[in-house]
Predict the 3D structure of the following.
Amino acid sequence: MIIHLMKSKLNGVARLAHLGVIRAEGVDAAHFLQGQLTQDFLQLGLSEARLTAYCSAQGRMLASFWGFKRSATEILLVCSRDILPATLKNLSRFVLRAKVKLVDASDEYSLYGLAGAALEAFVSDTHAPWDKVDIGAASVVFLYPSDGVRRILWLAPVDQAAPAGTPLSIELWALSEVHSGIAMITSPVVQALVPQMLNYESVGGVSFKKGCYPGQEVVARSQFRGTLKRRAFAAHSEAPMKAGDDVFQDADPDQPCGIVVQAAAAQRGFDAIVSLQISAAEAGGLHLGSVGGPAISTAPPPYPLLADI
């Protein structure tokens, strides 16, 4: 059983200290990221944000970001702090002669998550996920909702006042992230998944019309040749779950059929986003850690999967 947040509880402002920021600045910023990430940054407007992934040559995700332009020559990439140093180092290797500078700008910005009525003082109801608006020095990115509750990412220079609102615990924010159905890459799952194994093509995280990037052939082949055998599902267990935990299925006790990608404590037990073999999700009989481990139940993600490109 998937435990859903009560809408009355998901309301307020949470400090997101677990997130960091990479800044790409220079006249070639968009061109450089165009050749490195799964998203089309050349077509990205100043009123848009994008979910995007950074992949290995084998199409495995090394990082994922919420990315947006602060100006025509400045792009910010928001990711988990635990993978930021390695990600920045890897990306910087390919700058070469491009007129772009990549830096860890995490200490320059404050990041907050706002949910429910806390949004009303700042934004209207007319925005869709991945819209981006600037409010003074702050940038606001509209995220996917959680159990029907609207959510935004608020990013502003550290010298700006924090957004006003009822304090929201980081635990509830983490649960709202899980219930949004969109998992972000953290260190336990680096190189474990191609983007479609997290449904990224269905939530605007992959452009199939742009040029090449590392892993592009693998990502495209997974999409167009019907080779994808794993998808992201909502999951629940009475036992604690964390990113990187293996999932096993009764019919195949010797090897895992999936992995926990993101998890959070719920009202009873833990809820998670898991990437599973589609056949195992359909068959059921899932367990955490081993076939003798705690039971896991699954449900479809809270958004439709893309049927065609």
Residues 17 and 111 are 7 Å apart (CA to CA).
